[in-house]
What we know:
Helix content: under 10%
Distance between the termini: 24 Å
Radius of gyration: 26 Å
Strand content: over 45%
Mean pLDDT: 91
Number of domains: 2
Strand order of the largest sheet: 12-15-16-17-18-19-20-21
Number of helices: 1
Largest sheet: 8 strands, antiparallel, barrel
Oligomer: single chain
Shape: elongated
Amino acid sequence: xxxxxxxxxxxxxxxxxxxxxxxxxxxxxxxxxxxxxxxxxxxxxxxxxxxxxxxxxxxxxxxxxxxxxxxxxxxxxxxxxxxxxxxxxxxxxxxxxxxxxxxxxxxxxxxxxxxxxxxxxxxxxxxxxxxxxxxxxxxxxxxxxxxxxxxxxxxxxxxxxxxxxxxxxxxxxxxxxxxxxxxxxxxxxxxxxxxxxxxxxxxxxxxxxxxxxxxxxxxxxxxxxxxxxxxxxxxxxxxxxxxxxxxxxxxxxxxxxxxxxxxxxxxxxxxxxxxxxxxxxxxxxxxxxxxxxxxxxxxxxxxxxxxxxxxxxxxxxxxxxxxxxxxxxxxxxxxxxxxxxxxxxxxxxxxxxxxxxxxxxxxxxxxxxxxxxxxxxxxxxxxxxxxxxxxxxxxxxxxxxxxxxxxxxxxxxxxxxxxxxxxxxxxxxxxxxxxxxxxxxxxxxxxxxxxxxxxxxxxxxxxxxxxxxxxxxxxxxxxxxxxxxxxxxxxxxxxxxxxxxxxxxxxxxxxxxxxxxxxxxxxxxxxxxxxxxxxxxxxxxxxxxxxxxxxxxxxxxxxxxxx
Length: 563
């Protein structure tokens, strides 16, 4: 919550909720998916591939699955069932099951799922292209799948799946957010404290000396907490805010709205997006003095150390007021009276972006290697230690980072709730087969970044006036607002290595419309590289990706989710 005197960061709180019924919600985290299954189609498909389709008078007629060559290792009896009475989804949602349950595919399978006209009418959805196929999993967050085609006249949406299971077509409404979510965010707000100062002593002239400029740590904060959405437009939240190393308990409540296209707004001005399956949301502030980024994941179910196992890619951003040595301002005073305007150097040394490849053993031990970009200087970095996952999904690393694990373990959040540095992180599970085609369609992307070059010449300076000597004076140090930005982008990938985007940038409190384009590549292991110095990773299925700056002076962290 964003408080300036009351709520400063809730801009990053908005969730994608675990649904427990209601209109439009997805199966909730930890929720069972009971129901009665009736097999509507059955066919033997082998390694050569094939198609299974539901025909006739079945309510799910038109549902099908297309298996490419190599998706299956051998002859398999594949089934499509109609599930009725499934918990966690409203009654006007068709739930289908591709079997056998638990089967994983060596190549993505195109699943076409039916939806009912009354589902659109009941939610006033006028644009069926906003609908998404969601994989429903008991005890885990729903996985929103990337759309490959739609047929509005037949009432179907097609997406690619990497495993068998239950699927449904869902749209967006306030019920998309329902239940409890973990969130974190990183905030820049120069109003958190008074400006820094330097003390100048000139005993006599001529005088030459340097004066240290303290890192403006007062302006940075992180938060880690939980937020509950009621599925009908109201929320409440609580968190620990770490402002300049000092933790404070914060909380509040308010109202939210999820538009039919998945755009999310809170009553305190933040905007963002939520996945149709309700497992991840992103948030930022496109206007105003608070420059912040936040994200949230659905939580629920039973957790333990074994819930966090395997390889993950982690984007990590932090400011460190203890780093140094501090910048200095040099004065050369030949005589008095003296008057000059002195530029304040940007404290690049205190800002870091990292991209890790981390491995968790499921038993409380982890290790990582990666690249650290400290103020534009890149270097290899590595670490390791122990971790613990509480029964509620809370995550603690021995390096002081804490967070929360998404139900199902596909992602996790990190933040530092006390002390320096002020940190935020996001982890995505690695695994699967990828190519440039793994990113296709439109994504909502939020970015937070620091850019020393964005401060205009003379825009961050101190006016030094010394009338005579001896002199002692204290001068305020202006905060470099223009060096910090967030962006909320609508980014379209063509599946073949090119992207374009439009969005809103909040640069130090000044909002503007921005746009761009570029190229990208997705390696076979999911590693994402984008023009402009961004790198990251794609989650299997293509619903989510993370970004970080591994080189260059613009230090960024970002997350993208299907729009």
